Structure formats: structure tokens, C-alpha cells
């Protein structure tokens, strides 16, 4: 009996899930093009490499990794868009691909780069069409739509052609479209990309609300750490298609937060040379921002040195930003030291998805 309860509490599982693509090799130039036609050569690119995963019902999971790590490829397999090369998976007790029609009624998805709405039609027309596709009875659809319109504040946009909506307005409509049929699990792939702070906050609050009130499981990929910290308790971090870390955010912070950021404001201007031995992030006039290794230096000794520089007017001590912690974990997963350009890539992810030989993140 307990085994059945455990099975019913699991929404998603994967075992050694793997996806490899065959990419054609082409040398540069016209001669290279002719050789590629006459004597094509290929190489195998492994996008997802043996991922084991288990997600509980009602859980909100962050699935993280740098560009090209295999995140979107994994989601496409879980939603039945792609067929795995090897391994197994279940979503809501069904096998994606094999049980695709039944699965479609139980999952919802929002891809920040792709739209479910018809570009030249008002959003309301798309909602009604999607309701028909999902066999939602008319009165039930209207009741559901009314609730989503109020929740997402999209009433004034329903009759406007989608192409004339702002990005924030369109994304709120996309989220509404994904929830019309009351899915059990919602796949969110960069749902807040390119949105302003206000719209991000509204979408995050809505996601928390449907998780709390309807028990919807959320599977989130995002380069926006605000999404991760505000929505999820647990994060799975992958790199080069392999799992690097599977832990709660609290445990990640506890294990990796060894550095502190200290911002000090003095009554008078200071000599920055007095901070030799510290990692100085900023020092000008009467203010300094320092990075301190809390394991290598006791906070008592650190504060004693700081106060010896001059009369302190104000001081704040904060942890390293979460995105820097996760970036460091990415590097540990590859066995390399942190790389500034890769950290910047993670924090400034652009709208275009990088593609290589058919591999999509």
C-alpha cells in the first residue's frame, strides 16, 4: 500500500535519459560544400547524457544550466516533442511519445521563445480554439477563462490581435493559454525572458498561486535567478547533459556561501591602500565594497581591520549573489575554475537560443 502512495506522489521520473543528435560536418568554402554533398560525414552530439530525475506532485523544481547544457532538449523529451535515444521517463504516470494524446491533456507548457497564440488573431480566439482542442466544455471553459483573466489581469487585451500586444501582455496571455485545460504539471522554459520587473512579479505570483491553490507541479528552466529564488525550493543543475547537483536551494546556499560582501561607509574619505589583502570590489572617497572569504578569515578579525581604517558611519554584510554561486557550480561540473565570460553569459542570456547541429539547449 505504501508503494502505491509513493508512486502516486511522484509526478515525473527519468532513468538514464539520453538524447544524441547526428550533426553533419562541413568544411568551409564551395569545395567543402561539394564534398559534404558527395561524401557526407557526421559526428554525434550528446545533448542529454543519462539524467536521473524524480519530481514530486505539487513540487516546484528549478532545472538549471548554462546555454547548451541540455535543458530545453530534456523538456522536449518530457513533453513528447523529441524521442530519447535511450533511457526511460514517465510524466503523470504516462510515457511521453507513447501516450502522447493522453499526456497532452495533463500537461501545460510555456516556451519564452515560442507562442501558442495565433499572431494575427485576438487572444480570445486562440483561447476558444485551444479549449476546443482540449475538449473543454463551453461553460467550463468560460468559467476557467474568467478566473485566469482576473488572475493575470488580461481582460483589456482579449480582443486585441496578438501581434499588437507588448511582450509582457503576450506572455501573460501565453500563461493563460497553458492553463485553460487545468494541467497537472506546467513546463516553463524561460517564462519571464525579456520582461520588466512589474510583469515578472505578476507572473511569479500567479505561478505560486496556481501551485498553492490547484497543486500544479512546476518544472522551471530560467536564467533569471529571481524566478528560481522566489518560486522553487529545489534545484537540479546540469552541464554538458549531465547532472551536476540536485539539492534544495537552502542546502546549496549553506554549502557554497563561503564569501561575504561587505559595504562600508566612513565618516571621512579613506585611503584604499589600507584594504590590502582584501578583494576590493569598489573603493572611492568614503566608501568601500569588499569581498571576504569567511572560511579563511574570521569575521571578528575582518571587522577589526575595517574599523581601524577610520570612523565607520554604516556597514552592511551580505551573501554572494545566487547567480554567482550557481555559476561556480557549473564550473565544478566541468572540472574547470570559474570563467568570467561564462558567468556573464549566464547572467545576460539573450533571446536567441543557441543551436549546434540540431542541439537546442
Strand residue content: 25-35%
Termini separation (Å)? Answer: 40 Å
Give the overall average pLDDT: 83
**Count of folded domains:** 2
The CATH superfamily of the largest domain is known as P-loop containing nucleotide triphosphate hydrolases
Q: What's the alpha carbon Rg, rounded to whole Å?
A: 24 Å
Structural class by sheet pairing and helices = alpha/beta
List the uncertain runs.
Answer: 1-7, 334-361
- Tell me roughly what share of residues is in helical segments: 25-40%
Give me the number of helical elements: 13
Q: Which architecture of the largest domain per CATH?
A: 3-Layer(aba) Sandwich
Query: Could you tell me the number of beta strands?
Result: 15
Strand order of the largest sheet: 5-6-7-3-8-9
Write the H/E string, N to C: HEHEEHEHEHHHEHEHEEHEEEHEHHEE
CATH topology of the largest domain: Rossmann fold
Write down the CATH class of the largest domain. Answer: Alpha Beta
Inertia-based shape = globular
Biggest β-sheet strands, sense, barrel: 6 strands, mixed
Structure description:
By secondary structure, this protein is α/β, with parallel strands linked by helices. It has helices at 2-9, 29-38, 71-78, 100-104, 123-133, 138-152, 167-179, 197-214, 225-231, 249-256, 299-309, 322-334, 340-347; strands at 10-25, 41-56, 60-64, 86-91, 107-111, 185-189, 217-221, 234-239, 242-248, 259-266, 279-284, 287-293, 312-319, 355-356, 359-360. Helix 6 (138-152) runs antiparallel to helix 7 (167-179) and helix 12 crosses helix 13.
Amino acid at each position: 500500500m505504501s508503494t502505491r502512495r509513493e508512486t502516486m506522489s511522484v509526478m515525473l521520473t527519468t532513468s538514464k535519459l539520453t538524447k544524441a543528435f547526428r550533426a553533419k560536418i562541413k568544411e568551409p568554402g564551395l569545395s567543402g560544400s561539394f564534398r559534404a554533398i558527395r561524401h557526407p560525414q557526421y559526428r554525434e552530439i550528446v545533448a542529454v547524457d543519462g539524467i536521473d530525475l524524480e519530481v514530486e506532485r505539487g513540487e516546484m523544481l528549478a532545472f538549471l544550466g548554462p546555454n547548451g547544457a541540455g535543458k530545453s532538449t530534456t523538456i522536449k523529451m518530457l513533453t513528447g516533442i523529441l524521442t530519447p535515444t535511450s533511457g526511460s521517463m514517465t510524466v503523470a504516470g504516462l510515457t511521453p511519445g507513447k501516450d502522447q494524446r493522453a499526456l497532452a491533456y495533463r500537461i501545460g507548457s510555456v516556451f519564452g521563445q515560442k507562442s501558442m497564440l495565433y499572431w494575427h488573431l485576438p487572444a480570445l480566439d486562440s483561447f476558444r480554439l485551444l479549449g476546443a482542442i482540449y475538449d473543454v466544455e463551453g461553460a467550463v471553459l468560460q468559467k476557467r477563462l474568467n478566473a485566469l483573466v482576473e488572475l493575470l489581469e488580461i481582460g483589456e487585451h482579449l480582443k486585441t490581435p496578438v501581434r499588437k500586444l507588448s511582450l509582457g501582455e503576450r506572455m501573460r496571455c501565453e500563461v493563460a493559454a497553458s492553463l485553460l485545460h487545468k494541467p497537472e504539471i506546467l513546463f516553463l522554459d524561460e517564462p519571464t525572458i525579456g520582461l520588466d520587473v512589474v510583469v515578472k512579479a505578476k507572473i511569479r505570483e500567479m505561478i505560486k498561486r496556481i501551485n498553492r491553490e490547484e497543486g500544479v507541479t512546476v518544472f522551471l528552466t530560467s536564467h533569471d535567478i529571481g524566478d528560481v529564488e522566489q518560486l522553487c525550493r529545489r534545484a537540479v543543475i546540469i552541464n554538458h547533459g549531465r547532472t551536476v547537483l540536485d539539492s534544495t536551494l537552502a542546502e546549496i546556499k549553506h554549502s557554497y556561501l563561503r564569501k561575504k560582501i561587505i559595504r562600508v561607509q566612513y565618516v571621512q574619505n579613506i585611503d584604499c591602500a589600507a584594504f590590502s589583502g582584501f578583494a576590493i570590489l569598489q573603493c572611492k572617497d568614503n566608501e568601500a565594497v569588499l569581498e571576504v572569504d569567511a572560511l579563511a578569515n574570521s569575521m571578528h578579525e575582518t571587522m577589526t581591520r575595517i574599523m581601524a581604517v577610520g570612523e565607520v558611519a554604516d556597514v552592511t554584510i551580505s551573501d554572494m549573489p545566487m547567480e554567482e554561486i550557481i555559476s561556480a557550480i557549473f564550473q565544478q561540473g566541468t572540472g574547470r575554475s570559474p570563467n568570467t565570460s561564462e558567468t556573464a553569459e549566464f547572467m545576460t542570456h539573450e533571446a536567441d537560443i543557441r543551436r549546434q547541429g540540431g542541439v537546442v539547449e
